[in-house]
Each structure stands twice: as structure tokens, then as C-alpha cells.
Write a structure and sequence with these properties.
elongated, 100 residues, two-stranded antiparallel sheet
């Protein structure tokens, strides 16, 4: 929950500073706003990952040699014959759904 209040006074130069009559040359405004954040969580039971089959994005990273890095500006070296694993598909439902 967040609450914010704002008050502003606008007045005519010099005339708005007169002690009693200055009120006639002033304009006051007041603004109050409230914001509320609601988080909805839907839990799903999942099966644990098999750590032996789990791969990381950095598993097949090849560090560039000095020529590739300094002269060519490459941040990744050429493949050393190792190939990235082929994904056979996804288990279960993936993505997002829009409430109806």
C-alpha cells in the first residue's frame, strides 16, 4: 500500500504576500493518491531435475585464443569438436496462459 499527498500554492507575485489581502491572490490545490499492489501466486508441483542430464549454458563455451580475442574481437572461440546436446523435447506444459 502506498499513499502520496501533494499540496501546492500558486500566488500572484507581491500581491499574494500581503498578510490579510494576499489570500485573495492565492490558489491552493491538494491531491491525494493511493496505490495498492496485489501479487497472485499459483503453485505447481514439479518433479526434480536429474542433475546428471542437466546442462548449463556455459558447458559448451570455448574460450577464444589471443588472436581471436585481440585481433578479431571475438568473445567466443571456434568450436573444438564438441557439440551442444540436442534437446529431444520438453516435458509438460510450458509458457504462459492468459486468464479468460
Amino acid at each position: 500500500m502506498r499513499e502520496a499527498t501533494r499540496a501546492s500554492i500558486s500566488k500572484f507575485p507581491l500581491l499574494g504576500d500581503i498578510p490579510v489581502l494576499g489570500v485573495l491572490f492565492q490558489s491552493k490545490s491538494f491531491q491525494k493518491s493511493e496505490t495498492e499492489l496485489v501479487i497472485i501466486v499459483t503453485p505447481h508441483l514439479v518433479k526434480p531435475l536429474e542433475l546428471a542430464k542437466q546442462t548449463l549454458p556455459t558447458d559448451f563455451y570455448v574460450e577464444p585464443n589471443e588472436i581471436e580475442f585481440f585481433l578479431l574481437g571475438a568473445i567466443e572461440g571456434k568450436s573444438s569438436g564438441r557439440s551442444a546436446p540436442v534437446h529431444e523435447g520438453l516435458d509438460g506444459e510450458f509458457g504462459h496462459s492468459v486468464p479468460e
